[in-house]
Design goal:
It holds the Pfam family GTP_EFTU. It contains 3 helices and 6 strands, in the order H-E-H-E-E-E-H-E-E. By secondary structure, the chain is α+β, with helices and mostly antiparallel strands.
Length: 131
């Protein structure tokens, strides 16, 4: 839990507003529907506290090891009917992790605003000046 919470908080703090939760290692739970829903409930609670809207998040049960629900729907989880999310742009749905990735909306690029860059350090170089 700790690392997942930390990543969610860090992502939100850095301005990430779209999230996909891939519930991996479903093969180790014998593709348990109960365990998947338990994880969705727990994860929804803490991403909501961080600032994300759980209704705008796709929750996808996968097995990276076996490739289940990564690119194509799997027969190993017949109970899984797919994910659905609702954003400002509207509703979208799918079954696989690839579908969820494809449903991510490209962020707007503020090209009409001045360029800003973070500074790491200031150097004083003799004969050149401060850079």
């Amino acid at each position: 839990h700790g690392q997942t919470r930390e990543h969610a908080l860090l992502a939100f703090t850095l301005g990430v507003r779209q999230l996909i939760v891939a519930v991996n290692k479903m093969d180790t739970t014998n593709y348990s529907e109960e365990r998947f829903h338990e994880i969705v409930k727990e994860t929804s609670n803490f991403i909501k506290k961080v600032g994300f809207n759980p209704k705008s998040v796709a929750f996808v049960p996968i097995s990276g090891w076996h490739g289940d629900n990564m690119i194509e729907p799997t027969a190993s989880m017949p109970w899984y009917k797919g994910w659905e999310k609702e954003t400002k742009a509207g509703k979208s749905s799918g079954k696989t992790l690839l579908d969820a990735i494809d449903a991510i909306e490209p962020p707007s690029r503020p090209t009409d605003k001045p360029l800003r860059l973070p500074l790491q350090d200031v150097y004083r170089i003799g004969g050149i000046g401060t850079v």
